[in-house]
Amino acid sequence: FFYPFGLLDRLVGMSPSAVVFASEIAENRSPFTLLMAGENVLECVVMILLCVAGLVIAVWNVLKGRLGLMPICLFATAFLTFIAERNFVLFMPVLLYGTVAFSTNHQPPTTNHFLLPTSYFLLSTSYFLLFFLLGLWTRSLLAYDISMIASQRVPVDAAAWMAAHPHEGHLFNDDRAGGYLEFVNPSDPVYIDGRFILKTADFFERYLRYADNPALFMHDADSLHFGRAIFPLRYYARWGRLLSVLEAQEDWNVAYRDSLYIVLNHDIWNFVSER
């Protein structure tokens, strides 16, 4: 029953865990944060400009006395987009409707009742195609194969190898891979998955610190009994520094690698299993 309220907390950032979540987890960062970091510059500029355009349309409608649901939705979804990049998918259809409504309210009068609805249809279709092509959806769809699984974003081949080669100890994984790993190999519990709402701020902070503090990861690997770790190499690969340290350690070895993911085993657990 309370789950939607937790999701709202994550969107707005009311609790400490939501603040960590919004500031560090990929799409949940603000487009302003991404822009300042030099990530997805073009997409972030387009998002911000479209959100500003939506706010202008909303204000114009309010000034003209049109106090319906559309201006409220434009305000709300633009505000959510400024908070987190992922909320742009909520804003786009509202902006589409608001733009078409704004444009049709300023059409010159005509006596041709056939051309008028036709122009509305062409206008709405053009806006839909424009937003679809300029948005993030086109690039995202290219990552999926015919099975509707994006091998760039989830460890398809690595997960198959892991299922065929069980390990001792616990598994450490990147948050993006967790849900897929649970799906294909439910007998191997994951460290984290996409259900961020279930985690605390302390957990998030410590998990995110692993990327920049390899010593902390190795300390926790011993105390939490990590016997295997899987990391992405390309898509949102924030683990480069940690990987370079682990590969140099004698008690960690690369068990599997492809162009997208790498799997490392902790030798101490291999030694225990052999005994």
Low-confidence stretches: 271-275
Cα radius of gyration in angstroms: 24 Å
Q: How would you characterize the largest beta sheet?
A: 4 strands, mixed
Mean pLDDT rating: 79
Between the first and last Cα atoms, what is the distance in angstroms? Answer: 48 Å
The helix/strand order is: HHHHHHHHHEHHHEHEEH
> How many helices in DSSP terms?
14
**Order of strands across the biggest sheet?**
1-2-4-3
Shape: elongated
Q: How many E strands?
A: 4
Percent range for helical residues?
55-70%
Strand content: 5-15%
Structural class: alpha+beta
Entry keywords:
disordered C terminus, 14 helices, 275 residues, 57% helix, four-stranded mixed sheet
Your description of this structure?
- With 275 residues, the protein is of the alpha+beta class.
- Helix content is 57%, strand content 8%.
- It is built from 14 helices and four strands.
- Helix 4 packs antiparallel against helix 5, helix 4 packs across helix 6 and helix 6 (88-104) packs antiparallel against helix 7.
- The longest helix has 23 residues, at 41-63.
- It is elongated, with a radius of gyration of 24 Å.
- Mean pLDDT is 79; it is low at 271-275.
SSE topology sketch:
Layout: H1 3-12, H2 16-24, H3 31-36, H4 41-63, H5 69-83, H6 88-104, H7 115-134, H8 137-141, H9 156-164, E1 170-173, H10 178-184, H11 201-209, H12 214-223, E2 226-232, H13 240-247, E3 252-257, E4 261-266, H14 267-274
Parallel strand pairs: 1-2
Antiparallel strand pairs: 2-4, 3-4
Brief rundown of the structure:
This protein is α+β, with helices and mostly antiparallel strands. It contains 14 helices and 4 strands. It has helices spanning 3-12, 16-24, 31-36, 41-63, 69-83, 88-104, 115-134, 137-141, 156-164, 178-184, 201-209, 214-223, 240-247, 267-274, and strands spanning 170-173, 226-232, 252-257, 261-266.
